[in-house]
Amino acid sequence: MLIKKPSDIKSSEITDEKVYRNRRKFILAAVGAGTAGAAGLTLPGLLASAPEPPLEPTIQGLVKSPLSTDEPQTPFKDVASYNNFYEFGTDKYSPAKLAGSLKPRPWAVSVEGEVKRAKTYDIDELTKIAPLEERVYRLRCVEGWSMVIPWAGFPLGALIKQVEPTSRAKFVEFVTLLDPKQMPGQRSGVLAWPYVEGLRLDEAMHPLTILAVGLYGQLLPNQNGAPIRLVVPWKYGFKSIKSIVRIRFVERQPTSAWTRSAPQEYGFYSNVNPNVDHPRWSQARERRIGEFSKRPTLIFNGYGDQVAQLYQGMDLKKNY
Ligand SMILES: Nc1nc2c(c(=O)[nH]1)N[C@H]1C(S)=C(S)[C@@H](COP(=O)(O)O)O[C@H]1N2
Ligand SMILES: [Mo]
User: Fold this and answer.
1) Ligand 1 atom closest to Cα of residue 1
2) 197 with 241: CB under 8 angstroms?
3) With a 6 A CB cut-off, is 241 part of the ligand 1 pocket?
4) Residues within 5 A (CB) of ion ligand 2
5) Which residue intervals of 243-295 are DSSP H helices?
6) What CA–CA distance (Å, rounded) separates 32 from 22?
7) Backbone angles phi and psi of 19, in degrees to 5
8) Residue span of the structural domain in which 194 resides
9) What three-state secondary structure class fits 151?
C-alpha cells in the first residue's frame, strides 16, 4: 500500500491480468495433459492456487445470511487472482502465483490473553464453533478498489463467547503465521512481520464481524488467507487479516502492522470514510473490480446503519 497510489493501479494492470490469465490457462492445460501429472509430480505453487471458477460448492449446508448484500458478486477468478497479501509479494498477482507454498492444514489457532478459557483450537474444530453462513460483503481496499465477495464463515462473537473474556479485555489482537519458508514475502522488510491487526472488543463482537474459512462455497484459496481470516466489512480491507494463528485479548490497543509502518497513513480504526482522505489520495470514490467508471465510496462502506453507533461522539477525522 505504500508502493502504489490508486492512480497507478488502473487499466494497465487489468490488461496485464488478462495476459496473465491466458498464460495461466495454458500452463494448467499443459500440466494436465502432460507428463508432470502422470509422473505424480505435484506443483503446489501452480495447481493449489489456480484461479479458475469452482464447479461445485464443497462446503455443505451453507445458509445465506440476511446480512448479505444482493449486489452483483465479483467473479471468483478476480477474487482469487487480484489480491493483497504481502507475505507473498507486493504485486496484486503474486499471491495467486506464490501462495501454493502455504500449508493450511494442519493448522492451529491459539486463543489467549484476558480470557477465562484460553485454548488452542485445531482449524477443523474452530470451523465447527458455529454454523457456517454465506455472507456476501463489500470489501473496500484502502487503495481505492472494491469487490463483492460471498464469504463462508461464522461470527467472531461466537468464538468470543466461548472463551469468555475477562473484565480486563478491551481489545482483540490478531496475528498471521510467521514462517518465511511458507511465506516468502516475509524475507523482505516491506512490513514488520508477522502481520498484526486489532479491533476494539465491541467491534469484534459486532454481528457483522466474521471469521471466514471459505468463499464461493469453497475453502479459502491460499491467496485469500487460508485457512482462516478476519472479515470486517465496514473497515478498509487491510483490517481483514489473513491466515490467523493467534487471537489475543488485551487491555491496551494493539498496534497494527500498517500503523506501525506508517502511522500517519493507517490508523487503528480505518473505518471506510469518503470524507476522510488518505494523506496521499482521496477516498471519495472507488473502482469496483470489473467496472469501468468509479462509484462513490459509502460511509462505513455502506454498513453505517449497523455500525455508526459504535463510534458515537468520536471525531472520525482524528480517529482515522
Ligand atoms: N496477513 C495479511 N493479511 C492481509 C493483507 C496482507 O498483506 N497480509 N492484506 C490486506 C489487504 S490490504 C486487503 S485489501 C485484503 C485483501 O483480501 P483479498 O485478497 O482476499 O481480497 O486482505 C488484507 N489482509
Ligand atoms: Mo487493501
Assistant:
1) 12
2) yes
3) yes
4) 84, 141, 237-238
5) 257-261
6) 15
7) -60, -45
8) 73-311
9) strand
Q: Is the CB of 174 under 6 A from ligand 1?
A: no
What 3-state DSSP class applies to 261? helix
CATH number for position 110: 3.90.420.10
Question: Does the CB atom of residue 186 touch ligand 1 within 6 A?
Answer: no
Neighbours of 313 (CB within 10 A): 4
Total residues belonging to the chain? 320
**Residue of 12 and 113 predicted with greater confidence:** 113
Q: Distance, CA 240 to ligand 1 centroid (Å)?
A: 6
* H or E stretch at 285: strand 285-288
Query: Is the distance from CB of 171 to CB of 197 less than 8 angstroms?
Result: no
Averaged pLDDT score across all residues of the chain: 88
Is 58 within a domain?
A: no
Q: Is 105 a domain residue?
A: yes
Q: How far is CA 202 from the centre of its chain?
A: 20
User: Does the beta carbon of 87 lie inside 6 Å of ligand 1?
Assistant: yes
Picking from 150, 171, 144, 176, the residue whose alpha carbon sits closest to that of residue 160 is 171
Contact between 87 and 186 (Cβ < 8 Å): yes
Task: List the beta bridge partners of residue 113.
Answer: 249
Whether the upstream peptide bond of residue 53 has omega within 30° of 0, thus cis, is no
Decide if 302 contacts 138 (C-beta within 8 A): yes
| Domain membership flag for residue 204 | yes
Q: For the chain, how many structural domains are there in total?
A: 1
Enter the pTM of the model.
0.86
What are 198-238's pLDDT values in tens digits?
Answer: 999 999 999 999 999 999 999 999 999 999 999 999 999 99
The answer, yes or no, to whether any atom of ligand 1 lies below 6 A from the CB of 78, is: no
Residue 23 lies in a domain: no
